[in-house]
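Q: Can someone sanity-check these two? First one:
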Amino acid sequence: MVNIPGRSKGCLTCRRRKVKCDEGKPTCQRCHKGNHDCQGYPHPLRVVFDRSCAEVPPGKEGEASSSKAAERTNESNRLAVSRSVSRSLSRTPSNEEVVDVQRELASRPFLREPGLSPLRDDIYSSFLVKNLLVHLDIGQDAILSAFEKRSPTTDDSVQALAMAFYGRLHRQDEICQQGAVWYGKALRKLSRDLTDPNHVWSTSIVLSTATLAMYEFVTSTRMTPWIQHAGGVGRLIEARGPWRHQSPEELRLFKAVRPMIAARATNHGTRCFLEELDWRTIPWNLDPSQKASHDHLTDFACALPGLLEDRKYLKIARLADFATSTSAAKLKAFKITSFAVPPSTADRERAPRTRQEYQSLVTALEGRVSESARALQDWKNTWDESSPAYSAVGLVPSQPLSYDLPIDLFGPALHFPDLQHANTYTLYNMILFHLLGISIEIRYGWLSPNAFSSTTSSTLPTAYVSPSQSADIPADLALKRRETAIEICRAVPYHLWFEKHGSAGAYLLMWPLISALQLFIPPWTETPAPEAQWIKGVLRHIAERWGLGSMFLAEEE
C-alpha cells in the first residue's frame, strides 16, 4: 500500500535512504549494486497458534491433567512468544537477529505450518531456490517439480543444502554448522530408506542423494565426498533401470542428474552406463519429441567417460614402457598430472600388455573418437540453425572485478540469449576439447600406435607440449583444440557477471572450466601459463563469491 505510514515493504536501508526498493529477498539488489549494507526487512513473522501441540513450560507437568491449567499454560506460552516478537519489532533488528528469531520461532511446534513445501519453509530454502535451483538450465521443469513428492529424508537433505549454501555465501559459520547437523540427519534417514523395500525404488531416494551431493559440492574442500555421493546417484539410477524413468516426474529427475553422473565418471575416467543405447532412448519412449537438443548433447557427455577410460588404459601401458628410459623425477611428475584418480589394480590388469593389444585398442579408440566428432558436428549444425545466435561483445561489469576477461589472451567476451544457451555452448566446447585431445594423443602424440616399445619413448609426450613447440601435431588441429578452451573462457563473463543468474552460472561453468584448465598446465612447466593463472583466479572467485567448488582449489594446491 502506498502513502500509508508504516506499510512500506522496502528494506530498512532503502527506507532510511528514502529510495524505492526492489524488494529482493533476502537482500535487495539496489543495495547490492550501490554497495550499501542491506539490513533486511521489517520482521515478517505472523504467529500462528495451535493449542493442541503447545509446549508446557518446566514445572507445569502436574497441572497438565487439568484442562483449565493446560489452557492457562498455552495462553502463557502464547503471551511469552508474543512479547518476544514484540520486543524484536520495537527496534530495527540486524540481519543476524532476524535469522536468530526466525530460527527460535520455527523450532516451536505450534509455529510450524506442515503443509508448506520444503522449498518455501524458511529464508534458507527460499534463498537456495532463488539463487541456484530456479536458474539452472534445466529449470523448474526438471528440479523444483521433483520436490513436490517430498519425504522426510528429502526435507532434511534440502535443509542441509539450503543452510550450507546460505551460510557459505553470507560467511555465517553458525548456519553452516547447523546445515551439517541436518546433513547428518539426512544421511541416517537415507541409510534406513535404502534398506526399506517400500522406499528403495522411490524417486525421493535419488533426489535426496543428489541433494547431498550438491551439499558436498558447496561445503567440501576434497573431491572424495562429492565423488562418493555422485557415484551413489549413478548406482541408484542404474539399479532402477531405464524403464523406471519414463513418467514425466521420473524423466525430469533423470534429466537433472545425468550431468552429475557424467561429470563424476569423467573425473574418474571410468565408463558410464548412460552411454548405452537403452539409456539414451527408453526414458523418452513415451514421447520422443520431449528429448530436446540439450538432451542429445548430454548423450555425448555421457559417452565421453568411456573414451577417457580407454585412453587411461593406453596411458597405463605407455607409462610402463616410458619408465624404462625416463628419469624418476619426470616420470613421477607425469604420473601425478596424467590421472585425476590414480589407476586401480583392476585398471592395470585391463591395460594392454603387448604391442598387438596396444595397437588394437588405439585403432578402436580412434574410430570411436572420429565417429563421435562427426556426430557432434552434425548436432552443432542443427543447433546453430534452430537456436538464437550468440555474439562477441565488449561486456562491462557493473563494478571492477578481479577476473576481468583479458582481451589480449581471449578476445572479446561472448553474449548469449539466455543461460541455457550459454551452458549448451560451453558444454559443446568442453566435449569437443576432450575429443580433440584424445585424437591428438593417439594420432600424433605419445599414445600413437607405433609409440609402444619404440626407441622414441624417452621423448617428452607431444600432447602436453605447447602447440607452437610441437612439430608433429598439425597446426590446425592444435589450434582448434586451443580455440575450444578459449571459447569456454570467453563465456565466463556472461555466466558470472549477471546477478540474475544467481549461483547457477557459476555452478554450470565449473565442469567446462576445469577441463579448459588442462590445456594450460603442462606437467613439466613450473610456472602456469597466463591463461591458467586467470582460470584459477576465476575458480577462486567462484569459491569465495558463490561458495562453490572449493574442492577444485584444494586439488590444485
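And here is the second, same format, sequence then C-alpha cells:
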Amino acid sequence: MAERLLSHHLNDSSTPLLDCLGAAYAAEQRGDEDARNRYLALAREHDPDHLVAVEVTRAQFLKRAGQVAQARQVLEALHEQGHRSRTLQGLLVNLLHQEENWDALEKVLNDSRRSKLLSVEQTKALTRELGVARLMAETQGPGDGVSAAWRRLSRKERNDAGYVATYARVLISERRMNQAEQLLRRAIYRQWNTELVGLYGLAHSDRLEEQIRVAENLGDGSRAESRVVDDARPAVS
C-alpha cells in the first residue's frame, strides 16, 4: 500500500529521487531488503540522470549489510562505465582495501592520481600500505619472492622507513640476519628512525662485536640507542 501511494506521489513530486532514497533508507532500517531494492529501482526509473547517486547508495546499503563483494561489484561497474565522483572513488578504495584486493586497488589509485578525486595524503598513505602488503604477501609464496618484490620497488620506496621496516622484519624472521643488519644500517645512516633503530638491535649478524660498535655510534646518544646496544650485547659470547 505504501509503495503504491509513493508511486502515485512520485509523478507529482519535485524531489522523486529524495523521496525514493528516503523510502529505501527506511526499508533498510527495518531490515526489509526486498522493499529497499524496489525503492531503489523506482529511484532509477524516475530520475535516470542520477543513476550514480542511486547505485552508490545501493553499494552503501550492501556494505552496511556485510555484502562487501556485491557492493564492490556495483561500484566497479560504475567505474568501468567511466563514472567518477569523490564518493564513488572513496567507497571503492575502502572496499578494495577491506578485501585486500591489491591489484584492483592499485588500478584505482593510479586512476585517482589522474582524476585527483582522492587527497594527495590519502593516495600516498594507501600506496605505501599497498606496497607493504605486497611485500608481506610474498612471504607466503614459494622461494624468495619477498626479495624479488623488494627489488621491484622504486628507489624512493626502498628508502622509505615503512618499507624498510617491513622488509627487515621478514629478513629477521627468516634468520637472514646479515642482510637485515646491512639493510638497517644503511637506512639509519640515511635518516635516523626509532623503529629502524629498534629493529637493528634484533638483527644479530655474524659480526656482532662490530655491530655493537656501530650501534654505539648511531644517532645522538638517545635512550633508543642504548636499547639497541643492550639488545645486541647478550648474543656476544
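A (reply): Looked at the second one. Residues 218 and 225 are 7 Å apart (CA to CA). The chain is about 75% helix and 0% strand.
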